[in-house]
Write a structure and sequence with these properties.
- By secondary structure, the protein is mostly beta strands.
- It has one domain: Lipocalin, CATH 2.40.128.
- It is built from 1 helix and 8 strands; from the N terminus they run αββββββββ.
- The chain has an 8-stranded antiparallel β-barrel.
- It is globular and about 35 Å long.
């Protein structure tokens, strides 16, 4: 199961395609952003792809890649991560996180998978497109 989850995360990032990050300094503001999700495992180099990201006032964030959604609840030093595929919960874990400029970074040491959510630019508050 551990290898399956890491493989699924890497495959998801690869399936999303590649994008060039245009990251500027400073934490992102509340709201929706065009972004990028990068996933790195112990056995594979970083795979990055476009994502719709939303930073909410309640301290949570959503990262959508196609029909997968990472629900992130940010606490003072830890993030609760729940991976959803439609209405089905695929995974859940809690790990430390850090803001590095406009990127949110966290690592699941147990599964040796590193995540980086890059907030590239603010977008309108329309819902993210489905299936893209």
């Amino acid at each position: 199961m551990i290898g399956l989850r890491a493989a699924a995360a890497v495959a998801m990032a690869m399936a999303a395609g590649t994008a060039v990050a245009a990251v500027s300094g400073g934490r992102p503001t509340i709201g929706r952003h065009a972004g990028e999700l990068c996933v790195t495992s112990a056995k594979a180099m970083a795979n990055c792809g476009p994502a719709w990201v939303e930073l909410r006032r309640d301290g949570s964030a959503r990262v959508r890649v196609n029909d997968l959604v990472y629900r992130l609840q940010l606490h003072s030093s830890q993030v609760e991560v729940v991976l959803m595929h439609g209405a089905v919960q695929v995974d859940e874990f809690t790990v430390p996180y850090a803001w590095v400029g406009r990127s949110l970074q966290f690592t699941d040491d147990e599964r040796q998978v590193r995540y980086e959510v890059r907030f590239e630019r603010k977008v309108a508050n329309d819902p993210p497109p489905q299936g893209r």
